[in-house]
Amino acid sequence: MSERVPALDALTDALQRLPGVGPKSARRMVYHLLERDREGARALAGTLDNALERIRHCRRCNNLTENELCAICASEQRDQSFLCVVETPSDIPAVEQAASFNGTYYVLMGRLSPLDGIGPEDLPFDGLDQRIAEGVTEVVVATNATVEGEATAHYIQDRLQPKGVRVTRLAHGVPLGGELEFVDGSTLDQALQRRYSLEE
Known about the structure:
By secondary structure, the protein is of the alpha/beta class. Among the domains are: 92 residues, 3-Layer(aba) Sandwich (Dna Topoisomerase Vi A Subunit, Chain: A, domain 2), CATH 3.40.1360; 29 residues, no CATH class. Helices cover 42% and strands 10% of the residues. It has a four-stranded parallel sheet with strand order 4-3-5-6, with helices on one face. A two-stranded antiparallel ribbon has the order 1-2. β1 and β2 form a beta hairpin. α1 crosses α2. The longest helix is centred in the N-terminal third of the chain and has 17 residues.
């Protein structure tokens, strides 16, 4: 019978808080750090502690930043009238990669999910209303293409329509360079529903 090591079990449990990390993966990480890379483990602990102390949410858009305003909100080069609404801060780098969006962002910090008990009152929609009042003329809703993401997009559309703001949605469908035989049925269905005329 192997000896129980409470500190080892606690570290294993802590690592399982990370998305996609189960008991076996967490245990492998723990043994790697303790047996082969204690220096790396100390660096990881110090870096994480430093990040927890310094990183906060931007007061304007909820993005992660070390300052009161994130670099995007503080930039004079960004179009303040063009707003992209995303679910989490991790969605922003994905949109930025496209290099075709020059507006600003608003992070919902989640999405509507009645089954999980998350309703409109649980997300910062008041902050979104405030951003609209600052002169936003178009909102691109970039929530995920899930049932919850679509429900959130429809809620935003209904909420902002009376304010006279143009609300658009990211298109979904066949990826550029994709071959039809490798595209799943749900994606093809979205592509067919959002088809457009070649004359446009």
